[in-house]
């Protein structure tokens, strides 16, 4: 494959990956579909983060032409709560991250035992 074809293929892959990133990072990812029951509407919300990276290469190696390429992206979403809409009032109900609470409790316990061990 020629250098020009490599560049063209790399650009096509970058465009495709950038399109995937755009499709996964939008308001519908952050706000879920509203659910209505008995006159109360719940709109779930999430925190969404994403990242994108790429690489390249080129040059000549000992056994011929060198090359290289790499790219990727990641998206992470976690629920953070919901808007509750009832009559003319909107309230926010945060979600509780049980895993985070457990890890914080473990960290506090570990620090307690560490400092207790230092006092001995």
Structure description:
The protein has 120 residues and is an alpha+beta fold. The chain has one domain. The protein has 3 helices and 6 strands, in the order ααββββββα. A hairpin with a 2-residue loop joins strand 1 (35-37) and strand 2 (40-55). The protein is flat, with a radius of gyration of 25 Å. The N and C termini lie far apart (69 Å).
Number of individual domains: 1
Number of helices: 3
Oligomer: single chain
Which overall shape is indicated by the principal axes computed on the Cα atoms? flat
Q: Total number of β-strand segments? A: 6
Q: SSE string, helix = H, strand = E? A: HHEEEEEEH
- Kindly report the spatial arrangement of strands forming the biggest sheet: 1-2-5-6
- Given the helix and strand composition, which structural class is it? alpha+beta
Q: Summarize the biggest pleated sheet.
A: 4 strands, antiparallel
Please mark out the parts with pLDDT under 50 across 5 or more consecutive residues, or reply none: none
Helix content: 40-55%
User: How far is the N terminus from the C terminus?
Assistant: 69 Å
> What is Rg?
25 Å
**Approximately what portion of the residues adopt beta-strand conformation?**
35-45%
Mean pLDDT across all residues, rounded? 81
Walk me through the topology.
Elements: H1 3-24, H2 27-30, E1 35-37, E2 40-55, E3 60-61, E4 64-65, E5 70-86, E6 89-94, H3 98-119
Antiparallel strand pairs: 1-2, 2-5, 3-4, 5-6
Quick recap:
The protein has three helices and six strands. With 120 residues, it is an alpha+beta fold. It has one domain (3-119).
């Amino acid at each position: 494959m020629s250098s020009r074809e490599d560049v063209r293929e790399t650009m096509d892959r970058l465009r495709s990956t950038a399109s995937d990133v755009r499709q996964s990072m939008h308001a519908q990812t952050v706000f879920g579909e509203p659910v209505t029951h008995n006159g109360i509407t719940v709109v779930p919300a999430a925190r969404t983060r994403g990242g994108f990276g790429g690489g390249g290469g080129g040059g000549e190696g000992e056994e011929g032409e060198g090359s290289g390429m790499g790219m990727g992206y990641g998206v992470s979403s976690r629920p953070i709560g919901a808007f509750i809409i009832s009559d003319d009032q909107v309230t926010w109900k945060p979600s509780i991250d049980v895993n985070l609470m457990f890890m914080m409790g473990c960290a506090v316990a570990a620090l307690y035992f560490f400092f207790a061990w230092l006092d001995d």
